[in-house]
Amino acid sequence: MGWNGKSGVLVLKGSLSRIDDCLTREDAHPVIKSVAAAALLSAILGFVLGDGLVKAASVAVLVSLALCSVLLLIGGLGSLRREADAHRGLVLRYAKAILDRDGLPYRFIKWEESSVIRNSRGDSLDTTTIRAEVTDNGMLFMRLAFGSGWPQPARHRGKVRLRVRKLMIGDRPGVNLERTVQWLEDGKLRLVIHFAEPPRVGEEISVVVECDWPGKSMPLMREGKVDKFTFRFSRPVPYARYQVTLPEGVDATCEPFGFSEHDERVHWGRVTDGQGRTQFYVDGVDVAVHRELGMLLQVG
C-alpha cells in the first residue's frame, strides 16, 4: 500500500495533539518531557523534509509517541485518583475526630429511608429524608453511613450516583449540597454533608440523600438470598422508618430484625402501592442508641 499524504497529515495532527497534552502536563517527569520533545522535533523534521519512506517512518514515530503520551496521561489520572481518595479519607477522619471530641451539634427528629428495587438485577433507588434540630453552634457538616447487604465488588462503586439536597418549608427541594464520599473495603459508603453556613441553634434542618445504586440488592433478586434492610444510630431517634418496594409482580417473605413481633415501639407490615408493587415497612419509635433495627427479606 502506497503512502497517502493526506492520511499522514491527519495522523500527524492527532498525534501532535496527544503529545502536546503530555508535554504540557505539570506532573510529567522532566526527563520524559525532554526525550519526548527531542523525538517529536526529529519526527517533524523528517516528515517535512524527507521523502515518502522517511515521512512514513516519521509518522510511525509520532504515533508511537502519541501512544506513550496516552499511557502517561492514564498513569497521571491514576495518581490523581489515588490522591483524591486520600484526601477524602482525611476529610472523613477529621470529621469523625471532631464529632468524637465535641459530640453531635444536632439531634435527629425523624429518619425516613426508602429503597425502591427497580428490576431483577437488584438496581435500587434509595431516598433518605433526614430531619434534625441544631443543638450547638458551628454545625458545618453531618456525617452518615450507608451500605448494601453484601460486599459489592469495587468495580460497581463507580456506577453509584449520589445527590444531596436541602429541603425547604413544605419539602420543596433546595439546592444541592457539597458532599464527601468514601468507600470502605466491605462496600459500605460513608458520607459527609457540608453546609455552606452553619444553621442557627434551635433551627430545624431537612436534607434528602438520593442514591441511584446499581446491583445493591442483586443477591436478593438474582439468587434468592436473604437480604437485610436495617438502620442503626449513634444517638436516640424519636421516629425512624425503613420501607422497601419490590418490582412489580415480585413478592417476598419478611421477618423482623432487631425486635420481636410484639414490640410495642415497632410497627411492621406490608402494603401494595398504587402501581401494584409490594412494599414492606418498619416503623420504630424512640429508637435506642446502637440498636440495629429493620427487616429480613427473601424473594420466592
Automatic annotation (TrEMBL):
It comes from Actinosynnema mirum (strain ATCC 29888 / DSM 43827 / JCM 3225 / NBRC 14064 / NCIMB 13271 / NRRL B-12336 / IMRU 3971 / 101). The keyword Transmembrane applies. Keywords: Membrane, Transmembrane, Transmembrane helix. This is Uncharacterized protein. The lineage of its organism: Bacteria, Bacillati, Actinomycetota, Actinomycetes, Pseudonocardiales. The chain crosses the membrane at residues 31-50, 56-80.
